[in-house]
Amino acid sequence: MNTISLSQGSGGIESNKLIGELFFSRFDNEILRKAEDAASLDLEKIAFTTDGYTVSPPEFAGGDIGSIAVCGTCNDLAMVGAQPKYLSAAFILEEGLEIALLERIADSMARELKSVGAKIVTGDTKVVPRGSVDKIFITTSGIGTRKAEDISASALQNGDAIIVSRSIGAHGATIFAAREGMGFQSDLKSDCAHLWPAVDALLKAQIPIRAMRDATRGGLAAVLNEWARQSNVGIEVAEQNIPISREVRGICELLGFEAYNLACEGTFVLCVDKEYIQAALDILKNSTACREAAHIGYVTEAHLGMVSIANPWGSRRYMEYPSGELLPRIC
Ligand code: MG
Question: How far apart are CA 309 and CA 319, in angstroms?
Answer without folding.
Answer: 6
